[in-house]
Every structure is written in structure tokens, then in C-alpha cells.
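S., here's the first fold you wanted:
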Amino acid sequence: MAAVRDLYEVLGVTRDASDDDIKKAYRRLARELHPDVNGDAVAEERFKEVAGAYEILADPGKRRQYDAFGSTGGPAGAGFNDIQDIFDMFFGQGGAGGAGRRRGPRSRIQHGEDLGVRIMLGFRDAVFGARRDLEIERLVACERCGGNGAEPGTAPVSCRTCGGEGQV
């Protein structure tokens, strides 16, 4: 993403703009740039930028925080590298300046697949809720081969413990 732009500049308003001015500017730009109206990919990116700026500037608390730290940096010189850093500060992901977040390509948490379990519920439990304990089997790396399927210290030959699957 490009260098950070001032959120007021994104909406085309001044820093002393009223809440009403910010709302009007957002609505005007949203109508102009909305993907359903303007199919241009650049307009879509600009629409996302405008929506993000409005989400921060329309909320009095978030606006105060942005005004205090802005794109020039916050306490202890915690500057922002791009607009994503600003959004991360307001919506989680590591605090001001993205502290605690890896730099470079955006790091993403990799989640496992969703689990599906079929259970039978009576009418009463379905309506009023119920608590059930479930036992879930999960695959774990074989301790002996470390998950590679080979006997320790050998070329890849099937491990006797896990049969070469790498998991037991």
C-alpha cells in the first residue's frame, strides 16, 4: 500500500470540519466511487480508503485518537508506515505504528480447517440452549520422526510408529 495519506485529505475536508461536513463528504465520494457505480479497480481501492477514513473520523473517540497521533507518529515516535497501520491501531493488530507486528508483507494468522460435528438435540435444548462436552480427535506430529515420516537419522524411510504418515 502507498504511503499514508491524511484521513481528512482522503475525504477532502479540513481538520476542523464538523461531523456533518465529514458525513457529506463521505456520502458524496461513496456515491462516486462505489464499485457498483464505478467498475474501475482504482476507484474500488479509493472507495475502501474513503470508507476506512470515514469509519475513523465519524467516531468521536477514534477521531480524537487520530488527531492526537495522526500520520506523524504517536508516543515514543511510533509512526505509521501506511494507512493499514492506522486501521490496525484502531481495530487491533498490534497498537500504534503496528508495534509487535512483523514488517514486510502482511503477516496473516493461519488457521486450521473448521470442524463439523453432528449432534442430536431435543426440542427444549434447541430452543433454550444446552451445554455439551465434545471429545475431538486431532492429529499431532509423531514425536519419533518429528512429522517427516522417516526414522530418526536416516534417509526418508517409513517410520514404524506412524507408518510414514508423519502423524499419529
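And the second, which I think is the more interesting of the pair:
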Amino acid sequence: MGTDDKQRRLINSHENSRGFYLQKFRLYETRSNFYMVGWDKTRTFWKVLKIDRLEPSELIIHEDPTSYSEIECLDLLKRIHEGNTSTGGLKFVSRCYGIIGFIKFLGPYYFLVITERRKIGKICGHAVYAITKSEMFPIPHSTVLSNMAYSKDENRYQKLLHMVDLTKDFFFSYSYPIMISFQKNLSNSETGLTLYETMFVWNEFLTRGIHNQLQNTLWTVALVYGFFKQVTLTISAQDFILTLIARRSRHYAGTRYLKRGVNEKGHVANDVETEQIVFENVREGSPVGVSAVVQNRGSIPLFWSQETSRLNLKPDIILSRKDLKFEATKLHFEDLVQRYGNPVIILNLIKTREKRPRETILRAEFANAIDFINKDLPEDNQLRFLHWDLNKHPRIKATKALIRLGEVAVNALELTGLFHCQLIPTSRSGELLKLSSIGCDSSGDHVEKDLYEMDVEVDNGSDDLRGAYYVKLSTVQKGVLRTNCIDCLDRTNVGQYAYGLVALTHQLHALGFIDVENIDSHSPIAHDLMRIYEEMGDTLALQYGGSAAHNKIFSEIRGQWKATTRSQEFFRSLQRYYSNAYMDPEKQDAINVFLGHFQPQEGKPSLWELNPEQHYDVRMHGSTLTAESSRSFIKRSLSEGNISCGSSSHGKDTDIDQTEDAHQPLTVCGKGGCKGISESTPEISTCDTDISFTRYTPSMYGGQFFHDMQLEQCLGSGSVKFHECALIPYPKNKEVQFSCWLDNLATSAINDRVVQKQNSAFGPVHF
């Protein structure tokens, strides 16, 4: 008995001082209840959850407040079995790795659980997993189900939910808040339920019921949807670990033509946060350097749409309502400032001219919106805005395009900075060390060499122990680069790669891997990074656009045969067209069901009876909901997806835990209108026009903020002309001296000299 008391004291002390995470579960059933038993990695904490099976249409969950030892838990299960022998006893159902959530259509409640998982990486020793298999179980016992009224629509709603392929692009961690960035993890005081309310947790609706009843997150996992890739790379004979994470927002999420622009709350379609983290690959117990940088993509924050058409590959762009004060646009940028701080830097890659205005309509209105918003902002907080038409010149070389984008990246990084710290092991290896706040002084400047404390898990081989680290902070990121084109897929991904490459040079330099901030665009490390960004771009494009991304620039850099590239681009255009025209409405319905934007009710119209293009509002229970939906966490085929419909029958007691090898506020620019390629079609010949850029002069103070670009309206012509200027820093309270030079990219000699001069002005970053 003394031993049991000692173990119980150990459990309570451990639980109270450090908290714990349930990572493995077993599901049992009796006629009246489901019982889920969960335990932590050390098999020290054992908890029991009970779900009522006699209530036909309500969700009733009870958590035993006691933390058991393993022996005590086995004894409890034995007593439950003995108490239910008259109705069949306690039966094993399945091994699980977490609850995804609960959902109800027109009949009973169902609950979704992870039954197989695979490890895809680690962050500070915290394992990150993907789902290999999941199952969905009806909660009421079969005797209760037989007495419930049957609706013919029930199966159809189930099939919609089954279209969601949880094995594609979803990931989670038990102990690391993967839904927020590394920098925010150090400074964020939010935990538990609050984290589930963030914009990147896709099963927030599914877990709302259990969280409201239990007021904890022990039993659920927070699913992030997007992209996760971790690799070990080598530079200068030294290994480092690179992690690229894309987090897709659940707000205003959906398919390409059914979700465009912004909604009334300021949420934009295809809103994705991309984080690039670099770790030193060091021995356990050694100090480890970490650097991270975040960028963002999202639809142009205006009220606009395109009608899905089976006859037109490029539907007209329609400004669907006039927001004279740009309230929704303002809300969007206020949210970005809240998330990332100032400055917000906008890189707009849409076209400058078209024979038939499409993109240029948005270009002009976007410029007007930024100009309007900036009028009410202090100079330091104004939005930094740059137009640059990536499709403007068909003869531009891919490397020169990356040079231009790299110049933007260099300036953006000077303005925002990046996160850099060193994790230093402490001797206090059993304690929880809290990091109260990240260091920015009242002026918002970066804090140098402040010492903070945090708790992280040590990657110690067994992955079962944790150690405490001091966090020696060098710099933090304050502000963000936001990139967009029309779909925020193809051109945007090129822009994000260019930024990622420049950021990597700064990260590796900060960590001491390279002496100068210079990585050649043709070096192996640059090609490795390009492949990862290309993979991310394909994944995000499949989710939102229905096909892999158009990667013409990447293909050219790799030296791929042009005929092969054209064929590939044409095929992807057709694939995207077919998906958008024929499959998107059903995908959108599935998204609405999964995210809870539509909740069925008997006597109300079914989801498929509504207009499929009602992409701003979905009616539910007689009220109006925002039909936020997101592209393709949907299974990319016509099959029913990977969620198995489980009965309450016995499952295999197998521990399938696969591991994947980790080594594998700126003023307006201008307006305009030259026909270039669409993101949906292969590149075709376009007119060759000039762009004017601003030259950087050595007398200008480096890295303060971007120059305001002039908006020029051509009266009487009915067209809008943009002057595009290079991104330049200039000193506050001084007259800006600059000159614009005509950049005819067809004139290679002049172009080469100017590019060479600009490279030297912006620092030794080569592409």
C-alpha cells in the first residue's frame, strides 16, 4: 500500500508541475457506454473517458478526474467488465491515437478517431505526425439506433464527410502547438482550449462539443491542414535540419472559384502561413541554434468573384460589391498586423496590362484600397505595397525573375527581421521553465541577447524524456511579407521560393554555417530548397485549385526540355479546369460539413438543395453562416476517402506507428492593364512593354521602408497605367532622391548591367 501511495504522489506531483500529454488510447465498449483509456509516453498517467451510448441524439461525455497507474487502470477495466457481464461485458474496439472530433447530421452522433499514424518530423524533440488511417463510429448502441427515425439524407451526409481525406496534408503534435509559429510558441501564453480557436486548427468545430464538456484538450488532437516537410541538408560539410510548414486558414476556406477575395470579417480565401525553420544538427545536450521566418499568401482582399464556367477556361473577374470605405480590406490588414506586427509588406504579382481587362480590374481597385487605408495610418505603420508583373515579359529568363524577386526579399527581411535564438541546456532537467514574453522593447526594436527560459523536449533517441533549456534570444521577426497573384498559387509560389532562398542565406549566416549572406541560385542547396518549395506549391495548388502548380520557372531553372514543360503545363491547365467546373461544388459541400459551416436540421433544406454558388452564405437552422470552406483536404478522386465507417465490432490490437524518415501599413504603386499568361493556361506570347524601376542609390539609408510608388490615371483613355518601381529604402524626414530607368528585358546588355549594379547595392545575395 505504501508503494501505491508513493506512486500516486509521484503521479500527482508530475501532473501538477509539468502537465502531461495522452498519446496512445484504447477504445472499449459496453452496451451502455464507450470507454476510452489513454496514457502518456512514460505509461505513468492513465485516464479514463466515458461516452454515453443510450442517449440517441445528445453527446454526453464524462471524464474520470482520477489519474490512475497502469495496474489501477487494468483493475478498473476488470470491474467494468464484471459489472456488465449480463449485457456482454466490456469489449475491445480499437487502438487509437487521439480523437479527431464528434459530428451529428440528422441522426445520431458519430466520433472520429485516429487509428494509425506516422511520424513525419520533430521540432525541438516534439514529434509531429500525419494520419495514416481514421475511423468513424456511431455512438448509440445498435439497439438504440434501431429505434431512431431514419433519414435518407443521413448516408449522403456521411459520404460527404468521407470525401475529406485525412491522410492527405493533415498533421498534428501532441506536445508542440504546431498551429502557431516557433516564435509565437516562445512568447505565447495561450494554452489548451484557446489554441484550438486559432485560425489554423481545422477540427475546431468537430472538437467543440467535447471541449465544452471537459474544458481540456487531453483527448483530442489539433489538426493543421497544409504542408509539412522536414529534411536534413548539408552546406560547407555541415548538416542542418530544415523544416517547411504551410498552415492553411479554416476561415473563408474553399474551392478556387467558390472562394475568392475577402468576406465581411476580413478573412480572405486561400490564406496560408508559411514558416521556414532551420536547426543546427548537434549532439544531444549541446546548445542548438534555431532560426525561423514566416511569410504569408492570401487572395486579394476585395469583394470579387469568378463564375464557374464549363465553356470558358478564363471566366471574367467581377467586383461583386462596392466597399467604398474598404472596411473588409482594412479588417484583413488589421488582422495581419495583429498576427505579425508592422510592417506589412505586400507583393502583388498580377498583370499590368491585358487586351481584355481581368486581372487589371483588381489591380486598380487594390491600389485604390491601399491608398485609402494608408491615408489614416501613421507613416511608420503604412502598408508597404509593390506591384510587379511576373508574367509581363515572356522572354525574361527565370534566373533574372528570381533576381528581381530576391531584391524584394532582401528589403523585406531588412524591414521585418527574422527570428534567431540559441537553446542552451540547463542542469534543471526535470523542471518546467516558462517563457513569459518574447523580447521587444517599447519601441518595437529587436532585443539583443536577452535571456529567457522555456521548456522544450530533448531529442534523445528514446524520445521519452525532456530537458529544460535557456533561450538566448538574438532577434525576432516583426512584420510580414504578404504575396499574392490571382489564385495565390503558381506565381505566388515562385515569389515565396525567392523569399525563402534569401531568408535561408540570412538564417545560415546567423547560425554560423556561412561567412557571407550569399547562396548561388544554381548551388545544390538552392536546388534542394527549390524542390521543397515546388512540392509545397503543388500540394497547396491541389488543395485550392484542383491540379499541381504551374512550375514553368522552376522547370527552366532545372533545364527541363521546353516541349516537356509546355505539355505538362497544358495538362495541368486541363486538370484544373475539369476540377473547377465539375468537382468543386461537391468538394465545397464536404468542406462546409467538415468545418461546421453547414449543420443539417430536419425540416430545413439539405445542403445540396442550396445554390452551389452561394459561397458567401450558407443557411443553417434558419440563420446565416459564413460559408467558409477550404480547398482540397478533399480526397483527390471520386472515391469516398479514407475515413472508415467503424461498427462497434472488435478491431485488431495492432500498434501501427509508422515513421517517415525526416532526412529525405505603404502607399499605392499604380494601376494598369499587356496580355500575359493566365495561371490556368500554358504560357503564350505576350506583348513586350517597358517597366520603369527605381534605382537604389548608395546615399540612401538602408532598410527603412519602401518608397511610395506613384499612381497615374490616364484621363480619357479608359485605361489605367502603372509605373512599377523597384523596392527601395529611404531615410525618414529626408527628400527621396531617385530616378527611374527603363527596363526593356529584351535588351539583354542593358539589363545585365543594371541587374549587376542593383545586386551590389542590395548586398551579396545572388540567384
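Why I say that: The mean pLDDT is 75. DSSP finds 15 helices and 29 strands in the chain.

Talk tomorrow,
H.
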